Amino acid sequence: MKLIFAKNLEKTYSTGEIDVTAITSADFSIDSSSFVSFVGPSGSGKSTLLNMIGCLDRPSGGKLRVLDTDVTTLDRKRGAAFRAKHIGFIFQDFNLIPVLTVFENIEYPLIMVQKWSAEKRRKRVNEMLEAVDMTDQAYKLPSELSGGQKQRVAIARALATHAKLILADEPTANLDHATAYRIINLMKQMRDEFGSTFIFSTHDPKIMEAAEIIYTLEDGVVNLTKGENP
Predict the structure, then answer these.
(1) Which of 95, 221, 78, 70 lies closest to 167 in space, CA to CA?
(2) Count of domains observed in the chain
(3) pTM above 0.90, yes or no
């Protein structure tokens, strides 16, 4: 089973009387445990593609299957439920909740989505804190952390629900060079340890270098430029 399969995938936005095509007849597939980048200039459709895979936006045409589910048929409520159960997100600006501690930020999706018992949540959060080497920072607020530490917390939060798919939108854009490399290596380590697939929307050559598969987008067209279609 392909983790993601797209055929003739299209996305068009209507702005008044003008239709703007963001994605044109995209064909691609991605296997489990992959490390994949979508790259291209601003406005090329990278974020649109991630949003459709993440059930934040619906395609205008074509097929899109994620984890053996035809996500083109999901309404907003079912899309949110699918996203919460199967997909983790890592953002450029971290998106941590400022009034919650590191521990509570990682725990948050387990309360809101998984509704696990307190004991099970505590065990999982501690596992993730150890995995990203943040155990000693568990009770600090985001404002007390460096950018690299914040992104470690974001990675732990994305993986806490056992998500099989992690979508990362420019995750190194706000990090210095050395920290970006450490975060990329950490994400690869997490892929190897947990078997999750990481898909990036990025301009960062460091991520492109680390990616095993690269799809390049230009004017809404998707082309494979590194690796092989599984």
Answers:
(1) 95
(2) 1
(3) yes
